[in-house]
Structures are given as C-alpha cells and as structure tokens.
Design brief:
The protein is mainly beta. It has one domain: Neuraminidase (6 Propeller). It contains 2 helices and 27 strands. Strands 1-20-19-18-17 form a 5-stranded mixed β-sheet, with no helix packed on it. The protein has a 4-stranded antiparallel β-sheet with strand order 2-27-26-25. The chain has a 4-stranded antiparallel β-sheet with strand order 4-5-7-8, with no helix packed on it. The longest helix has 13 residues. The protein starts with a strand and ends in an 11-residue tail after the last strand.
Length: about 400
C-alpha cells in the first residue's frame, strides 16, 4: 500500500457517538472561545431556520438524497416520493382524498438564493428510464443536472438541462445488480456524479453495487478510466464486515458514496462503510487517506463531501449521516478542525445528513435521508475561532 493513512478523529458506533455540546450552550461556548482567542480558526456558520420557504400545493418531501448548486446559486434537491407514508401523510393523494393535506412533491425541486421554489420536475417518462431509487443530484460546469440511482436494477446515470429537459442517459439501464466493477458499458447502483470542469470529465461514485470510481467524458458519456481503493483494480468479491481494529481493506466497501475532484487535480472518494476518504490523482494514483470516526459501524461515517469556494478550496465539509454531524476539514492537511450538528429534528440538527453542497457565497446546504426528509441552509458568517465540537449552529441572537 502506498501513501499515508491518517486517523483524524476518534469515533464510536452511531449509538455511542462522540458527545457534542448542544443548543445555546454550544453557541455560548463558541462565543467564549472566540472572545478568549481559544479554539481553532475555521469558517463559521449559522443555520437559517426560515430557509427554504414553505412548499406550495401541500407538498411534502420524502427522504432527500441529493443537493447541488448551479452557477446562479440556485439549489437543486432530489427526494424519494415512495418514502412518504401514504397512510399518515398523503391524505390529499388518496383516491378519494381523505384530507386536505398532503401530497408528495415532484422528485426534483429548484430553489433560488432567497429560498423560493422556482421549478420542479422529474420522475418516470417514455423518454428515459427513471431510477428505481433515485440517488444524488449534482450540477455540472455547464449547468446540466445529473442523477444516479441505487435501486437493485439501477445501472445508469441521467443528464438533464437545469430546466428538466432530458439530455442523455449513460450506461445500460435496468441490468440488475450482478457485480462487474470492470464494465465500461454500465454502472452498478451509482451514488453520485461530480465534475472536473477543466478536463470536461464526470466522476461517478460507482457505487452501491460497484467498488470503483468511473470517469467519463461529460459531453459525450464516453467511458475513459476507472480504479478501486488504493488505485488497485476493483474486485467484486464480498468484503468481510468492517473491523476498526483490522488492517485497512484493500478494496472499497459499498457504497462508494462520493468521488469529487478538486481544482488542483486531486480526487476525494468516500468509502462510506469503511469510515475513510481516500485521495487520488486524476489518473487513479493513490495519494493519501483519512479516517473519520473510525469506530462507526453499520452505514459508516463518510457520506458526502463539498469544498469551500475560495480559489484554493482550503476547506472540505464532510457529511456524516450516522453520527449526525458535519466535519470541517483542512483539505491540505486532512485535519478535522471542528464539527457542527447533532442528532435531532430542530434547525441545525440532523437525522441522516446525506448530501452536502456549497454556493459561491460560502453557504453550506445539507439534505437528510431516512426520516430527516429535509433541506437546510447554513449561512457563512466569516472566519473566526470556534471550539472543536460546536453542536447545532442556532443563530446567536
């Protein structure tokens, strides 16, 4: 194995996570640390409890499994309509309706920077095969919107204009989950797509069935290259259960949940159930890895990443849906500087924080799966000293 391995923050199972300060006490601690010159210098955020604005038409969100931001700072999310409980939540959708509320929102929703819903679309069509279980939504450097799927038969990714016009389907759809991490014609339950604008390439985190990163031409869908953990050839043999005390496994576990290229030519890959992020060069050469909450079992700790929007992309934000928090990481050193969030349903808390994105103003957006079922905005408040564990970032007013 080449490169280095780093453990940046200790962890526990989701039920015995690192204790975090909560509520106003956490905000008081943050203010005290800043006033005393203690803590660490890092980006500071506050949750905006009034963003986005209420949805129209009595719409509800299901498990919300993707978020992306376009060149106008419009925020796109995707959710799963089937995850909404029809017996208790969808009375207006019943036949005949059983109540005046509610109904499932369309799969894709678009919000402007003020939180207004400005468009909605998505779902099955005669023009393309909609994923059995849609998963991940991202916006490329040409403002096209890409969607994956982690259902049992999902083996392709879809590309739309930002207005919802179907543009292309890459990979052979509906081929089932027979493993083949060497295929150049299909994917295996792809989790997310990210983009290298300079090279005009799309990186597919492939995925819930595959054990690799796959790279294709962002305009044509031409398959270009792929690799597995540590730059190895991927192997579809089943991996043993994750053991935090065992040597690191030489293959990605499933799901490979993100594969995001940075502006300086590195690629950061979420090996979610392995509690690690591996770093590569664009050609798949292994560079480094970091462990996050490495005693997290089950669904793992490294669910998604997003970069800060400064020229150096100095900070990396890591969503951890098992321990219900976001890590702020110094990208150069792979050092965790601080965390925010905690388990709960109030603003600034999380249930299954699944996906994360940033806009040009430095704001952070998160979506929540399972029963979290929402989108949240964390407003960038500038740099300052913060404690290592911040808890929920409730406005300090």
């Amino acid at each position: 194995m080449n490169g280095k391995r780093r453990t940046l923050i200790g962890g526990a199972t989701a039920g015995v996570a690192i204790a975090l300060a909560c509520g106003q006490a956490a905000m008081d601690d943050a203010g005290s640390a800043e006033a005393a010159g203690q803590g660490v210098e890092a980006p500071r955020f506050e949750v905006d409890p009034f963003w986005p604005k209420p949805l129209p038409e009595h719409w509800l969100l299901g498990s919300t499994v993707g978020v992306g931001v376009d060149s106008r700072d419009h925020v796109f999310i995707i959710h799963r309509r089937a995850s909404i409980n029809p017996g208790t939540e969808l009375g207006l959708d019943a036949d005949p309706p059983t109540s005046e509320c509610c109904r499932a929102a369309p799969e894709v929703l678009e919000f402007d920077p003020e939180g207004n819903l400005v468009n909605s679309w998505g779902g099955p069509s005669d023009d393309y095969v909609w994923p059995e279980s849609n998963h991940g939504i991202t916006v490329d450097h040409m403002d096209n919107v890409w969607i994956g799927g982690n259902g049992a038969s999902d083996s392709h990714v879809l590309k739309f204009s930002r207005d919802g016009e179907f543009l292309a389907s890459y990979g052979q759809p509906a081929l089932g989950q027979e493993p083949d991490s060497h295929s150049e014609t299909r994917y295996n339950r792809p989790a997310k797509v990210a983009f290298d604008a300079e090279a005009n390439e799309a990186y597919v985190a492939d995925g819930y069935g595959g054990r690799r990163v796959a790279v294709l031409d962002a305009s044509t869908g031409e398959f270009k290259r792929y690799w597995g953990a540590y730059g190895n050839a991927p192997d579809d043999a089943p991996t043993p259960p994750y053991d935090p005390d065992a040597p690191p496994h030489q293959q990605f576990r499933t799901p490979v949940h993100c594969a995001d290229p940075s502006l300086d030519g590195l690629v950061y890959v979420c090996d979610r159930a392995g509690d690690r992020i591996q770093v590569f060069q664009r050609d798949g050469t292994y560079v480094d890895e970091m462990m996050i909450a490495p005693r997290t079992l089950g669904a793992g700790s490294t669910w998604d990443i997003a970069f800060s929007r400064d020229a150096d992309q100095k900070y990396m934000y890591v969503a951890d849906g098992s321990n219900h928090r976001v890590y702020v990481v110094d990208r150069a050193s792979l050092e965790v500087l601080t965390t925010f969030g905690d388990g709960g349903r109030q603003p600034g808390q999380f249930i299954g924080v699944h996906s994360i994105a940033t806009d040009s103003q430095g704001n952070v957006y998160t979506t929540e799966t399972y029963d979290g079922k929402r989108l949240q905005k964390f407003v960038y408040m500038g740099m300052g000293r913060v404690p290592a564990e911040q808890g929920p970032l409730w406005p300090n007013r």
